Amino acid sequence: MYYPEPQTKERHTRFFEWLQPIETYISENLENPQSARKDDILSHLRDFGVFRAHVDEQHLGLNLNETELAKLVEVLSCFPWLGSYMVKNHIVPVHIISTMASEEQKAKYLPKIATGEIVPTVCYTESDGGINVHNINTMTVLSDCDTHYTLNGEKSFVVNGHDSNLFVVFSRSGHSQAISSGHGVLSVFLVERGMNGIACKDIKNLVGLHNSPVCTVTFKDTKIPKDNLLGEIKSGMNILVDSLAPGNRNIAPQAVGILRTFIKLLTRHVLERKHLDQNMYEYEGIQEVIGRISSALYSMESMLYYTTGMDIYENQDCTLEKAMVEMYCANECVASIYEGLQIIGAQSYLREMPYIQFFEDALSYTLFDSYNVDSNIYIALLGLQHVGKNLHSHIMKLRNPFYFPQHILNWIFGKEYQLNLRIADHMHPSLVNGGTVLEKCIARLQTVGVLMLQRHGSEISDRQMELHRISELATKTFALITVLSRTSRSYCIGLRNANLDRQLASIFAILTHPKEN
């Protein structure tokens, strides 16, 4: 049970020395959030060098690793719109440019993004409803003189499009004959605000994430230099799928940041209020809710930094873990804030108070930024694919019992494919009960996975209700793994307040056990 440590001690110290003034500035603004102005905050963040975070060092950036970047987003997400701004107007477009751009393009754009001179945004969504890689109507036609492209189309839900001066646009491209015959390929272009034929309209505020409006951007006969093509003419599909895949949308650190801020407000409210002439914090029911929310936050943090820590090492495939972290954090954030609002009561329903705003902001992570149905299916199918590869022979024999009677008898009597992981031997002795729960969860997960593949075979992808249940089981099991790993490490190395970690881990194991057993 190893909890990854992605930084050396020296780098850890340097990073938190850089982060501390940013954290202090955000905390000061939280004291009076109504007076905090978007332009002033962004200006100060430029001075702090925040927009250098995801840019390579050779282009004036800091090149933070995944764990450091997640911590930065978590801190900024004390203002939920600011965390969203950092992700959608910095991390995502910079990732696309860094992945696909030539060295000349990187040298031209990345230093200006790092200094805040350029504010990029990504244009995915078509105006006729959603993102469909097979039905993108925005077209980019190569000119007859072979010197530039002409862009025509409309993109909706462009985040902060009215403030951006660089658009990363996904469109069908090629010669006019190829596009008219339906053979255009998906490409990515860098379109500067100063190019002709660009207009922003229909600026709309979201229910949550105030100060982060969306708009519709229209391109009419916009001439794009040929050098502004990112990558090859047909390389847009892979980067689009990668950017939109569950786990790659940086929702988890935002959810951790907003829930941490909400807990502080909730705790202050509970300490100051009375209920029926008794201090509210003295009620056991109130303590139970605070404990559940705290254990949820602890598990969210554990999953997030466990996964980002693993992702730094070479040859690590964290696709499944990232998807589970994203979905779990988004859902737990919403559920925990809603539970906390019930303690606050009528005050939580006043628009002048900040409480309901946190709930609306959290909803954006499940409604606007992701789609839980797809995420559940994605997680379940990835996990079952792994089970199928490793237990193919066993499942094949289970599906054909009359051909392999000896194997079936051995399996029934526990002589084949029975797990005995002895997890408790690999963690601090005080966590033995949690280790027992975890071992039961893992055994149950394997049993259910094999049963589903035995029962449905290649038709498993159509069984969405069962996929949803196994996705929840796998996600909760992974959460328990990360919680116990983190707690065991804290206790073994003698971190301050490690005893509180152990109590939170015990609570989480108890909450996990009845649902998965």
From TrEMBL:
Gene Ontology molecular function terms on file: acyl-CoA dehydrogenase activity; flavin adenine dinucleotide binding
Domain Acyl-CoA oxidase/dehydrogenase middle: from-to ranges: 122-221
Signal peptide region: none
Domain Acyl-CoA dehydrogenase/oxidase N-terminal, first and last residues per copy: 38-117
A GO cellular-component term linked to this record: mitochondrion
Keywords, sorted A to Z: FAD, Flavoprotein, Mitochondrion, Oxidoreductase, Transit peptide
Domain of life: Eukaryota
Main location per the UniProt record: mitochondrion
GO biological process: fatty acid metabolic process
InterPro entries, A to Z: ACAD9/ACADV-like_C, Acyl-CoA_Oxase/DH_mid-dom, Acyl-CoA_Oxase/DH_mid-dom_sf, AcylCo_DH-like_C, AcylCo_DH/oxidase_C, AcylCoA_DH/ox_N, AcylCoA_DH/ox_N_sf, AcylCoA_DH/oxidase_NM_dom_sf
ACAD9/ACADV-like C-terminal domain: residues covered: 429-509
Organism the protein comes from: Lasius niger
Entry protein name: Acyl-dehydrogenase family member mitochondrial
Cofactor(s) annotated in UniProt: FAD
Localization terms from the record: Mitochondrion
Domain Acyl-CoA dehydrogenase/oxidase C-terminal: 235-368
Protein family (similarity comment): Belongs to the acyl-CoA dehydrogenase family.
